Amino acid sequence: MSAGLLPPRPPGVLGALAVLLGKELLRLRRNPAALMAVGLLVLMSVLVSLETRGDPARQRAAGLPCWIVHAPGDPFAAYLQRHAGPRLPVAFLAREQPQASAYPRGLPCAAEIGPVQDRQAQGLKPLRRIVFRHGEDRARSEQLARWVLSGLAAQALDAKIEQGLQPFPAGHVLAPPGGLARLDLGSGQTRALVGTMLLYSAQFFVACALFISFAAHERERGIAQALALSPVGPGLALLAKFIFHLGLAAAACALMLAVLAPRLLGSGLLWGLLLLMGLGLSAVATLVVSFSRSQTAASLLGFCYLMTVGAVFALSGSFPAFQGLRLLMFEHHALQGLGALLGPRGPETASRLLDSLLGLGLTVPPLLLAATLAWRRRGWRQG
């Protein structure tokens, strides 16, 4: 048999993957609305970043003095007031109960100086109780603590110092004046919440909603069945879809992180969390496509899934059953880990990250296994 009559050699695995990824890229180029939606999410992150940098409330907070809240007539507070230096602006306020003070929003730091009531009731030597409060600027809080402690040492006074810097109590922070409540983007926790929601939105749109749209369309038209019956097979076709959508989701998240938190672009923990969350969302999309007969039904099921996740999260705060159900959802662990990485670092950050990674490791693999089995049995079949 001549060389011209020999059948062509089937492409290898890498060659087949390249062809399949090219097919997915071509489908994306024919759907500019999908790229526009991703661009809109990136634009939202840019607007959030600009709002954070130009937040007038945060700029005003940078010029606020730290508060020294003390009992009326306290001689140690009077000593501190006489020796207050210009480098650390402080304001002195007399309160009957310093530990129950209300603070304005955005206050950088405070020190509460009050007597220990039990010792006074027993007729013992007066002893002061000092609590240091911190806001967003922990450096100023530490400077205030060093100044107060040096005053104690200079006066040779006895005091009961609360361990560590403590945040302002939520119940004692005054609400902003008038109007409807608004997100304070000057707060680190609020910025972390907004950034987490933007990253999750990008992951859900690309790794789940877009996955459902493309895969359901191919199944309805018989393209998925033709690929499964070819030398490519259903497994390799599904792997190409996972690689394409996870790569596109990673690119969108990288653009957002470059705007919201550039310091996390090189964080392996963050990319591990995003990868596990993307795998979970792609597995959900695979299950939705496998058990839907048309593209319309698949898109509706995907929307219902998103609404179900939101309902479980909303009801978990009031009903223990929904709280247990939330622990079985990989979204809860992914959002918790992203919030810990994007938010201000604290003593609980490491434990939250460990819990998130453990939860994702327990919930995502079974979901991937179920999605793979469902795709191999019926996901690629037409009708």
Automatic annotation (TrEMBL):
UniProtKB keywords: Membrane, Transmembrane, Transmembrane helix
A cellular component term, taken from the record's GO annotations: membrane
Transmembrane segments: 192-216, 236-261, 268-291, 297-315, 356-375
A GO term for molecular function: ABC-type transporter activity
Protein name: ABC transporter permease
Source taxon at top rank: Bacteria
Every ABC-2 type transporter transmembrane domain range: 188-321
The keyword Membrane is assigned to this record: yes
Pfam families, alphabetized: ABC2_membrane_3
Bilayer topology annotation: Multi-pass membrane protein
Signal peptide: none
Localization, UniProt: Membrane
Major location category of this protein: membrane
